[in-house]
Amino acid sequence: MTILEAIKTVLSKKKDGLTCKEITNHILSEKLYTFNTADPNSIVGHSLRRHCQGLEFPSAHPVKHFYIVSGKRGTAVYSLIDSICATSANDVTNRHPVSSASDLLPEEKMQKYYNQHKESVKNQLLDMILNNDPSFFEHLVVKLLLALGYGYGTDAGQVVGKSHDGGIDGIINEDKLGLDKIYIQAKRYASSHNVGCKEIQAFSGAMKKVTKGVFITTSSFTKDARKEVLEQVGKQIVLIDGSLLTDLMLRSGIGVRCVQTFGTYEIDTDFLGTA
Asked: Where is the Restriction endonuclease type IV Mrr domain (predicted)?
């Protein structure tokens, strides 16, 4: 019997669920699995959380067998997904797992702090963009789209700004002859100033016969603005808000440098045997 099978055997008899420590104690007392370690609870916890619905981290397993019953005993209480009826299975899928800090695996903690670090860097990027001049932002968004693979090459983009009739801020040529273009509108707004429907309509009008456009802002778009994009006929307009903008900058290495890379590991069960 594997660790996973031992956990499932214990939880199949406990419909209300058990904590990780309780599951470990049952496995030991029922002699379902022999641990060759001084800390069997950590082995059980790792298998539980890797196969737990709603928990996603680098070594998490795509097949889920457990879910977390929240709000009990101040720590995660695990139950077997197979033990619940189909009607409540949807509730489990949509439930956000609640765990205390002590429940988290080391790789989960790494993921949590990485996400916090990423959000901090994104906020710094927006702050520095807002404290730069407008022309800097226009050059930034053109460079970003080129880095994402749009255009026929590195010199396929240009900033046009006020020199272009209609207020288009940038153009990406998808072929060397400029027969197929992407128009860019860049609005460097504070977070409190959202882009509305009228600005989308103005951009669409400025595009004239060009069918592809990208509207980029450091703030956000209103619901009416997003609805306006969906209702456009004959034009494809992509909206990029501040959050997506900084995400794309991180992915493309625009305005940031990677200073350290950490690896996370999982056991190779094909080599070492089923765990």
From this structure: 131-249
